[in-house]
Design brief:
The protein is an alpha+beta fold and about 110 residues long. Helix content is about 20%, strand content about 35%. The longest helix has 14 residues.
Length: about 110
């Protein structure tokens, strides 16, 4: 099993949800976050004063899936979410040792 953390621009959330649904990812958790990477933010003029905005709004989507599905998700996200600009996001993939469904006691992939 793999835990995937996918960080994207907020406007791409619906596209990502469609990809995850198509790939049969059972559950997702969504968090609004702020951050920056290579783009280092942007400059903005407000009432004649220049401000540097270096924390940009992002969305972090987390899900746990089996290994075969994780590669399919990575391929689709890179293909469909990519705009070619800085700030498109990142995908972090972690190994999950075990999962337990509390209601039934099922373990492993059955718990997903």
């Amino acid at each position: 099993m793999k835990k995937m953390e996918i960080i994207i621009k907020p406007e791409k959330l619906e596209d990502l949800k469609g990809i995850l649904e198509d790939c049969k990812a059972n559950g997702i958790m969504i968090s609004n976050i702020m951050g920056y990477g290579n783009q280092k933010g942007y400059k903005q003029m407000y009432r004649g004063t220049e401000y540097t905005v270096n924390l940009l709004p992002k969305v972090k989507v987390e899900t746990v899936v089996c290994e075969e599905i994780s590669e399919k998700i990575v391929e689709r996200v890179v293909e469909e979410i990519n705009t070619g600009n800085y700030g498109d996001g990142k995908i972090f993939i972690y190994d999950v040792q075990d999962a337990v469904r509390i209601r039934t006691g099922e373990r492993g992939e059955d718990a997903l």
